[in-house]
Specification:
By secondary structure, the protein is an alpha+beta fold. The chain has helices spanning 2-18, 25-29, 75-88, 148-169, and strands at residues 52-54, 92-97, 103-109, 116-125, 131-139. A hairpin with a 5-residue loop joins strand 2 (92-97) and strand 3.
Length: 170
Amino acid sequence: MALALGGLALAGAVLVARGPEPGGIEDVWLLFGAPDRGAVDLPTVSRSAGDALACPPGQCRAVSDRVPPVLPVPGERLRAIVAAVAAEEPRTELAFQARWAEEDRYVVRSEWLRLPDTVAVAILGAGEGRSTLALYARPQIGLLDAGGNRARLERWLDRIEGLARAEAAR
């Protein structure tokens, strides 16, 4: 029994050590489906374990964890700011970029086990030269999130707001 457990621990350590390489831990998570969880319909989104939602009033049926601010930049510029913030985050990659809508999705992986989370972003107009956004972060494997998506959503929103307001002040 101890030999079997030791073998499993060694196999797990090899998978984690290989990380994103073929035969690494990311291949194990593929058993749960694609890392990108796919499109989100904000008006009808329903919450699940380990997720986090920031949505302007009236845009989502689900209860929001935080109301995102209306920012003094046009939607196209806000989308670029979100992309810059995502690019600053370690282990974050663009998974989808809508061509005709202002919607993007990012896959973010945890540091050690490289668990994938999807962050869906929708940019929403809020009047002349102003915009806001909705963010929905959800884990591929919900029970293993431990508050990471909520913390990420807070961090991203704070950084996005800071960059947008600094740009508008120039």
